[in-house]
Amino acid sequence: MTHSRPDRPPRWRGPLTWLTALVVVTALTTLGAAIGGSAPSAAAADPHGNNGTVKIAELGDIDSPSNDPHVGCTFQVEWYGFDEGADIISSVSFQSWAPTSDVALDVDGPETVFVGGDPATGAGTPTGLDGLQVYTLHFTGAPHPVQGYHVKLTIHTPGSIGNDSKSKVFWVEGCAPEVPANPSLALHKTVTDASGDGRGVLDEVLTYTFAVTNTGNVPLTDVRITDATIPALAAGAPCVATLAVGATTTCPLLPSATHVVSAADVTAGAVSNTATATGTTPSSGHVSDSDMAMIPTEATVPPAPVAGLSITKTVDRAQAGPGEVVTWTLTARNAGPGPAQMVLVTDTLPTGTTYLSATGTGCTRSGADVSCAIGTLAAGASSVVTIRATVDPVPHVADPNGHQLDVTKVEAHLSVPRGATGTATASCPSGYVATDGSVRMDAVDQGTGTWIDEGVLTSRATADGTGWTGTVSNAATGQFQGKVAVVCLSNRTVSGEDHSHPVVVTGPLTTTQTWGAGAHDVDLDCGAGKVAITPGWSFTAGTGSVRVDKRIGTGWHFTVDVPTSATAVLSVRCLSTTLGAAGGHTHDLVLTQLADTVVVPAGQTVERSLTCADDGKGIVASVDLDQGEQSLGSDPRPKTRAFRFSNRTLTDRTVRIGLLCLSVRTGLGGSTGDHDVVNRARVSTTSPDATVSDDLASATFRVVDALALASVARLSSSPGQTELTVAVTSSGARAATARLFAVVRVQHTGLRAGSLLAHSRARLHAGRQGVTLAVRSVAEPALRQGDVRRARLVIVTRDGHREVQIVRIRH
């Protein structure tokens, strides 16, 4: 039975079985030791009528206690001294009583008890016990802090002398209040489109997923999903058989839930539908929750015809020597079907060549960079550019020493008010060039937004390549704080030797891309002997997120996520892995690529670092993110690069990071010798291009630094002048000095081994030619008389090439 507060009717749970094991405590009566007076001394003395006694006792106590002032939740009620009779049945009721009268009370036990089994006898006599019943009380509400719960017991027995109803109050302690059942669940519904761009188009398949969480305090069974828009769910479908408290399910029993976008959906501008999850409670009740998923729709617009831009490149000779001229022919073509607008051909002359001229539409030169602004190429049209250059002398002198470079960083603060766009530029010191940069997100005013509200519109090197510019769009309702950082490399070696070597960096290699919604990949390649530096971007229309920004071989790879549409300019510069020549030699840069992976826990932000070796500095960083992750920028220190990432998803994600380290000490100097020269050209357009893989072309020739000397020198004489002529074959034009030395002592002449016999200066051209040496007067008699038959010829070119040949002297 259940008895509630005094103002509530009782509710009975039913008889209590003796198998229940419950704690026993004591009870207190406030109305005396017994109900109905003191017990008679013997049955014979009892007057007729029910004047018996009722006692409250601990579980298992019979007769011996008078009454217990406090009992536990489970106790027994005992009847003594009631008359015999089939109608002697007591009605039993319980009520919560002040000071805990506002507590709800449930009772396990019967509402009536038969107590007329024998003639009346008193308590304490062998036959005095007429009835015994165990009750368990359950409370919902707070107890008295000291006493527990105060309860009133009322016994109504017909035929009693006087009032048939007798009452007493007592305390029940040690019972924790019961927590009422509170069943509930929560439904989370999501929708994705087949293309993944977040918009539905005609006939595109939409896929729905469901997550149901038991948010109540009782288990649920027969969890089902109903969605009128999805045929498989219209009548309700099973999600999961049992869902424990606090558990979440993605409905393994559910059939595939899809919807095909219709013309009506496109007209409506969105597909919006609501699903309902239901579950059954232990008491056979039901709980439910609904959630709506919406995806915008749009009409499919036929894409504008794209250009089919490409470039080819040839060189007029397979090999050339120093001083010779090479000519490259570049042809830009547009295969259509759309026009290519603002076509630009760029060519950076390779190290070892010197610019002579360029012909073609809109061609200009800046240093080694040649740019030709062709304009618009209609479908099927082409444009030709020719570039001429001379081959530089080839260094031949080795340097046993290395040189030193310097790397530093510069920062500029960037603060952007709410709803605004802000830009900052960090500039390198004079004499330095930028190799990398970053826009670092530091803080958004608390409670005004998150990192997702911040968009990096620009992160790229300045036009002159000596700084870094960052632009951030702040969609939060508070202030954004960040920094723009640039990594700077000295443009020459700085170690203080009697000569220095220039760092060779090309102009910007750029591509302009226009995209629709989705993920887009772009590669820029620097070619052999170079590495990509200053990878950057700038959105000129729309917005996007550069998710992959990493080095691949000699180039760079970008992956850009675009929510709707965007136009962006992507760029790199190319750093030669060999310093410029000085003092007749060059030096190689010592570069090392570091890589690592970082696990970013769901919903968290982490920072990880890569550190170069002791003599290394990080000059270019790489990041490779999965969808749902966000780079918060990196901090160049510059030996160590610190990366920060935010994971917006519900699962742990892995990020791949990299750092290109440059040793501040160069490699040892050396001669170049014969080698290949590769020249790369690129074509770009502001129009959508069908593919960018054919927008890069190269042509290669070999520099042959040959200098061959004949083995015979012919002597000729004229009045006042004696000369020696020797045949010399050169691979290219160059200035040279020729000397002839004695190889043995010539008697009676004063000439010894190593004495200079003849010399001259010559201007060599490519091919075979005669070089004439003037004979010294001290050697003229010996040469004319034939006393010198063999001599050592040494020719040294101005660029350091040295050839030695033993020649025979012929008249």
From TrEMBL:
NCBIfam families (UniProt xref): B_ant_repeat
InterPro entries tied to this protein: Chlamydia_OmcB, DUF11_rpt, DUF7507, OmcB-like_DUF11
Organism: Nocardioides luti
Domain DUF11 intervals: 309-392
The protein's name: DUF11 domain-containing protein
Highest taxon in the source lineage: Bacteria
Every DUF7507 domain range: 182-289
Pfam families for the chain: DUF11, DUF7507
